[in-house]
Amino acid sequence: MLSPTNCEGTTSYNDKTKSLRKVSSSISSKSSSTSSSPSIFPPSNNLLCQAQQKAETMEEVWKDISLASLHDHTPTDQELSMTSRLHSISHRHHHNTSPNFILQDFLARPFNKDPPTRMVSIIRDSTPFGSPLPPPATVLSLNSGPGFDFLDNSDHPQRPSSQLQSSPISNISSFTSPFEGLDSSPGLPSFCKKRSQESDGSSGDRRHKRMIKNRESAARSRARKQESPFLLKDCCVCTGANFLFCF
Amino acid sequence: MSRNRDPLSVGRVIGDVLDPFMRSISLRVNYNSREVNNGCELKPSQVVNQPRVDIGGEDLRTFYTLVMVDPDAPSPSDPSLREYLHWLVTDIPATTGATFGQETVCYESPRPTVGIHRFVFVLFRQLGRQTVYAPGWRQNFNTREFAEIYNLGSPVAAVYFNCQRESGSGGRRR
After folding, report:
1. Residue A244: is it exposed, middle or buried by C-beta count within 10 angstroms (0-12/13-18/19+)?
2. From start to end residue, where is composition biased (Polar residues) (chain A) (predicted)?
3. Contact predicate A107/A86, CB 8 Å
4. Which of B133, B53, B128 is nearest to B96 (CA)?
5. Coil/strand/helix, residue A244
6. Residue stretches of chain A with pLDDT short of 70
7. What global pTM score does this model have?
8. Higher pLDDT, A234 or B10
9. Looking at beta carbons, which residues of chain B come within 8 Å of A16?
10. N- to C-terminal Cα separation, chain B
11. Which residues of B touch A216 (CB under 8 A)?
12. Searching chain A, which residue's CA lies closest to the CA of residue B12?
C-alpha cells in the first residue's frame, strides 16, 4: 500500500474526521467529536454522544447488579435456592401465595418491610439509586420483552410458571442467569434463548447503533434525492472556462 | 454561502473522498453515450465496460491522472473497504481521453451487492510525466494520500454516479 509512514487505519481516520469537521463546521456551529465512527452530519454527532452517555450509566447499573450477584450465588444451586427463598418470603409475609406472582410484587415487598433474607438485601445493595422501587423497575424494564411478559401473565400452565418463579429473583441479581436457567429447562419457547444473548445490557447499545445507522442511511437518501435539481446546473458548469468554487 | 448546494458536497463526495477544491478542467464521462452527471443512477449492466472519458485543458504537454473509486465498499452503512479502487489511468494528455493514457490499474466493473454506492471519478493534474505505481490491492485506497504521495495537489475535476445491484429497488421513486 502506498501509505508512507503510518498504518492506514488511525491516521487516515483522524484526517477524515478533521476534514469532516471543517466541512461540517461551516454548516453548523456544533463541533462535538465522536469516538466510534465518523458521523457526517452534526445532529447525529450529538445523538451519538447522548447515546454513549446513557449507555455508560446503564453499563454501571448492570455492572453493579451483576457484581452483587457474584458474591452470593453459585450458579448451580441458584434456581433452587431462589425458589426456596421466594417461598419463604411469600409465606412469611403472607403477601402472595400464588405461584404466579409478578415481578413487580416482588420488587415492592422488600422496600416496604425489613428484608428477612440475604437475598433480598442484595436488591438493596445492588441498586445504586436512593429511591427503591422505580429505578430497578425501569432498569429491568429496558430488557423487558417476552421474558417479562411471561412473568406477568398468570394464564400460563403450571410448569413454566414454576420455572419463572425463580427468574424474578435471579433477574435482579444476575441478568444472564435466569435465561440460562430457562434455557436448560425443556418446554420453554425459543424466544427466551434469543433473549439470553441480549440480556447482558448491550441491547440498549445495539438499539442506539441501529438508530444511528438508520439516520445515516436516511441522510444518504436525502443527499441522493437532492441531486436531481442540480444535475442540469452541473452540466453547464463543467464546460471549459467556467470556474466554480466548492466549499 | 451558508448552505452549499454543489452536488459533490451534497452527495458527501467532498468529505468522504475529497477536500473542497476548485474545478478548472472539464471532465466528461460517458457510458455508451449515457453521460454521467453528479448523482445520476446507473445500473451495473450499464457500467460493465470502461467509459469514454474526455478531459479539457489546452496544452497537450500537460498530463492528468484519472482515479475511479467506490467510497461505499462493501456497503454504504459499513464502508470498511473505503475506498475501493476501480480504475487508475495516468499520463493523460490534456484535451484527450483516457485511452491516450497509461492504464495503471485496469477498469473493474462496479458490482455493488449491498446498498447504493457512489462511484467517483477524480481528475488530477500531474507535474509532468511521472511513473505512478499501482497499489498492492484495490481496497482501502486513499485518494487524498495518493494525491499527496505523487504531488498531484488538489483535484481539478470530479464527477460521481450512484449504482446499486441490478435487481435493487432502492433510491428515488421512479
Report:
1. middle
2. 1-14
3. no
4. B53
5. strand
6. 1-59, 61-201, 226-247
7. 0.52
8. B10
9. 16
10. 32
11. 77
12. A223
Q: Which of residues 63-82 of B touch A (CB under 8 A)?
A: 76-77
Helix (H) or strand (E) holding B8: helix B7-10
CB contact under 8 Å between B76 and A231, yes or no, is no
Instruction: Assign domain B7-164 to a CATH class.
Output: alpha beta
* Residue ranges covered by each domain of chain B: 7-164
- A245–B22 CB contact, under 8 Å: yes
A11 touches chain B (CB under 8 A): no
- Residues of chain A with C-beta less than 8 angstroms from the C-beta of B144: 12, 15
Please tell me whether residue B91 adopts helix, strand or coil conformation: strand
Give the separation between CA B86 and CA B50, rounded to whole angstroms: 10
Q: How far is B167 from chain A (nearest CA, A)?
A: 18
| B39–A231 CB contact, under 8 Å | yes
Is A238–B27 a contact, with Cβ atoms under 8 angstroms apart? Answer: yes
The H-assigned helical ranges of chain A are 8-27, 42-72, 78-93, 103-112, 118-126, 134-142, 146-152, 158-173, 177-184, 191-198, 203-225, 228-237
> For strand B117-125 and strand B102-105, is the pairing parallel, antiparallel, or unpaired?
unpaired
Give the span between the Cα atoms of B119 and A228, in whole angstroms: 17
